[in-house]
Amino acid sequence: MEIRFLNSQDVVVYRELRLYALRESPTAFGSSYKQESCFSLTDFATRLSSHDDSANGIFGAFDDGDKLIGMLGFSRESRLKRVHIGSLWSMYVLPESRRRGVGAALLDEALCHARRLDGLRQIILTVTTKNLAASSLYRSRGFERFGLERDALFIDGIYFDEEHLALHFN
């Protein structure tokens, strides 16, 4: 398995995985398939090239056959008062690749990347409270809950709560 930042040449496979993820796991994302299926390929390419430095991006996990099987976004705050904070977002692994360490490998790569960034002191993320597998993975790496947002997502007539988790570096 190879893990690396996605680039503009990955736009087609990224779009395919993102749209599949939004359909397959709608409670894992703040966005929706209905919303993003209208986006052009250029819109998706902009996501992969819109970051103004090498600190931010979307990690992709590729299997040995070069198929994109997972993704995890990382961004660092750019505002001076919050530049010490990074965020993880849009973690997703294809169902057939789950329970094989792909999510853990993506998370570990993102954490290694974050620890190399000068001045970064914490990473934050959100996860729906019913996503026990993801929550367990984050907690296994030291993330702790610092808040709960009730009714954070509304999907098909049902509200979902989200936990806010943080990992502090020493």
Which sequence of strands runs across the widest sheet?
Answer: 1-2-3-4-5-7-6
Distance between the termini: 30 Å
- Structurally, the number of domains stands at 1
Query: Averaged pLDDT, please?
Result: 93
What is the correct CATH architecture? Answer: 3-Layer(aba) Sandwich
Which runs of at least 5 residues are low in confidence (pLDDT < 50)? Answer: none
Structural class: alpha+beta
CATH-derived topology:
Aminopeptidase
Strand content: 25-35%
The portion of residues assigned to helices is: 25-40%
SSE string, helices as H and strands as E: EHHHEEEHEHEE
CATH class term: Alpha Beta
- CATH homologous superfamily (4th level) name: Gcn5-related N-acetyltransferase (GNAT)
The total of beta strands comes to: 7
Radius of gyration: 16 Å
If helices are DSSP runs of H or I spanning 4 or more residues, what is the number of helices? 5
Q: What form results from the Cα inertia axes?
A: globular
Biggest sheet overview: 7 strands, mixed
